[in-house]
Amino acid sequence: MRLLVKIGGAQLEQAGPRDAMCAAIAAARGDGHEVVVVHGGGNQIRSVTKAMGLVDRYHDGLRLTDAATAEVVLMVLGGLVNRTLVAALQRAGVAAVGLCGADGGTFSAVQVTRPDVDLGFVGAVARTETRLVQTLLQHGHVPVLATVAPREGADGDEPFYNLNADHAAGPLCRAFGCDALLFLTDVPGVLGADGQRLPALTPARCDALVRDGIARGGMLPKLDAALLALRDNPQALVKIAPGGHADAVRHALRDDVGTTFRLEPNPTTRENHHG
């Protein structure tokens, strides 16, 4: 299978969790899977902006990104976080190559707008060009993508745009023809009212979890990202799964691990099938 593995920045801050994730990717590669990695790095960005005296501001979970902050995002995601992860993968025996949207024109950004606030240099995936990633995969490499990219059609010295890694994962999964999108995170999956893992969710069930206050806080953006990814990749396996151990990628492909997102059953199809 071709897997897109989205890793949160919190899993990459410390050497232990980072090395465990790299071992998990190496194990999946040993099983013959092709892997594309997309990563975040919010905590690392916050650390640098604080040191530089910049104020972090958010709207609906998106970082308000002025020109100075955009430069920090590019330096931290495209530099510090990306290259540290690539080096850790290399030590784990994985031939990794660090990329951002500009490399090979792999993806560009379109500005994300909100009617009530100027988000600044915050983007979403616009155009994709898959040749570089496809070539790397064909030659046994693991592309490691930082979600920063130039604006589509930009000229001159306009800052790179900051893309939410969770939201970028779906369009990139579709563009690269991945069979599965695994959101590896610090939770065992989506939990129900009894605190137990929910094996599978549909969009309607997700709405009910939010409406009833069962899904809240940090789980809300995870649900949103998974549903967006499902919309973009209805034929792919889309899961939220735990990423904290050295076999996390292979475990995430199992039915008894994490939460799988599925489209609503089609009543007409079911009726026809049963005569």
What does this 3D model show about the protein?
This protein is of the alpha/beta class. It has one domain (2-273): Acetylglutamate kinase-like (Carbamate kinase, 3-Layer(aba) Sandwich). 38% of the residues lie in helices and 21% in strands. The protein has nine helices and 14 strands. The protein has helices at 15-30, 42-51, 67-91, 131-138, 165-175, 203-211, 219-232, 248-252, 267-273; strands at residues 2-7, 34-39, 58-59, 62-63, 96-99, 107-111, 122-128, 142-146, 148-149, 161-163, 180-185, 200-201, 237-242, 259-261. An eight-stranded mixed β-sheet has the order 5-8-2-1-11-13-14-12, sandwiched between helices. Strands 6-7-10-9 form a four-stranded mixed β-sheet. α1 links the parallel β1 and β2. α2 (42-51) crosses α3 and α5 runs parallel beside α7. The relative contact order is 0.16.
Task: Assign a percent range to the helix content.
Answer: 25-40%
**Largest β-sheet summary:** 8 strands, mixed
> How many distinct beta strands?
14
* Rounded Rg: 19 Å
CATH class: Alpha Beta
Biggest β-sheet: strands ordered side by side in the sheet: 5-8-2-1-11-13-14-12
How do the SSEs run, as a string of H and E? EHEHEEHEEEHEEEHEEHHEHEH
The end-to-end span amounts to 35 Å
> What is the averaged pLDDT score?
91
Classify the beta-strand content into a percent band: 15-25%
Give the domain tally: 1
* Secondary-structure arrangement, i.e. CATH architecture: 3-Layer(aba) Sandwich
CATH-defined superfamily: Acetylglutamate kinase-like
**CATH topology annotation:** Carbamate kinase
Query: Count of helical segments?
Result: 9
**Low-confidence blocks of residues:** 269-275
What is the SS-derived class? Answer: alpha/beta
**Outline:** globular
